Each structure stands twice: as structure tokens, then as C-alpha cells.
Amino acid sequence: MNVIDGTGQIVPEPHWRMLLTDDLEIDAATEYWRAVTTELRERNLLAPANRHAIQRLVLAYVIYDRSVRDVAENGAVTKPKRGNPKAIARVSPHFTAMREAANDAATLEAELGLSPRRRGAVTKVERKARAARASDEFKGKAAG
Questions:
Q1: Model pLDDT, residue 140
Q2: Region 1-24 average pLDDT
Q3: Which are the contacts of 67, defined by CB distance < 8 A and separation ≥ 6?
Q4: Are 2 and 28 spatial neighbours (Cβ–Cβ below 8 Å)?
Q5: Contact, 60 vs 136, CB < 8 A?
Q6: Using an 8 Å Cβ cutoff, are 136 and 142 in contact?
Q7: Given pLDDT bands bounded at 50, 70 and 90, which one contains residue 63?
Q8: Taking Cα atoms as reference points, which of 35, 2, 5 lies closest to residue 114?
Q9: pTM of the entire predicted model
Q10: Among candidates 63, 142, 53, which has minimal Cα distance to 98?
Q11: Which residues make Cβ contacts (< 8 Å) with residue 2, sequence separation at least 6?
Q12: Where are the domains of the chain?
């Protein structure tokens, strides 16, 4: 378990080797974890209860990256098998996985307050001092 300054005491990083086998993906997961937990810590939103949501977000990023590589190399549509007159071109399962991972990541980013659109919804509201008004002087007198 790796400890990121200021975050590992709050939310320990998962053992990526238990979930992933590719060294490049493990390195990417570590970097994604570091980026997400650092962002949440700096905004005072990092909590132990978010551990699994952060893990799912990081895995969605890794699956998205994996699927993008395949789609970039082979295309979004699979070619029909040769010699089979009934075979048709179909949407690549990697393209479908890529889109699903992107949707999952977007949902989790919103829940964690990482997407720019949702940042205002999860930050603490600053309470400003109420400006004194002339009528405030009379409120106390009427009650007493």
C-alpha cells in the first residue's frame, strides 16, 4: 500500500496488483489515484467513505485507456469474418466498453465533485456576515 502525503492516512491506496496484471496499467492507476486523492484533499473533500468510489473511478480510467488503445488500433467496427456470407460488421466490444467506462467515470467524477460543472455543488458555502440594517434596531424592542 502506497501512502501519498496527506492522503494515505485518510484513504489508503488499493493494492493494484490484486486488480490489474499489466505493469503500465498499474503505474497509470497509481498516477490516477494520486491525482484524484490530491485534488480531493486540497478541496477538503477526501474522506474514508469515498475510498471505493475513488477506486471505481481509477479503474474506469484504466479500462477506458485499455479500450481506447484497441479502438485506435483496430477501429470502432469489427470486420465481418471472411468466408461467412452471413457475417456482418459490428460495433467493437472495446468501443462499447470505452463508452461505458467514460460514462461511469463521468458519473463518479460528478459524485466526487471532480467535474468542473459539479465543483460548486460539493464545496462548502461561505457564510458572509449579515449586513446591519436600520430596522434591526426595532426588532428587539417589539418582542420585549
A1: 58
A2: 78
A3: 94, 95, 97, 98, 101
A4: no
A5: no
A6: no
A7: very high
A8: 35
A9: 0.73
A10: 63
A11: 8, 13, 30
A12: 16-122
The grid coordinates of residue 120 equal 460548486
Cβ–Cβ under 8 Å, residues 45 and 122: yes
User: How far, CA to CA in Å, does 95 sit from each of 37, 105, 128?
Assistant: 28, 15, 49
Contact 57, 112 (CB under 8 A): yes
Give the separation between CA 38 and CA 6, rounded to whole angstroms: 8
Neighbours of 131 (CB within 10 A): 6
pLDDT in tens, 102-111: 999 999 999 9
- pLDDT of 80 reads 84
Residue that is written with C-alpha cell 424592542 in the block: 141
Q: Coil, strand or helix: which one is 77?
A: strand
- Least confident range from 16-20, 95-99, 132-136: namely 132-136
Say if residue 84's pLDDT is above 60: yes
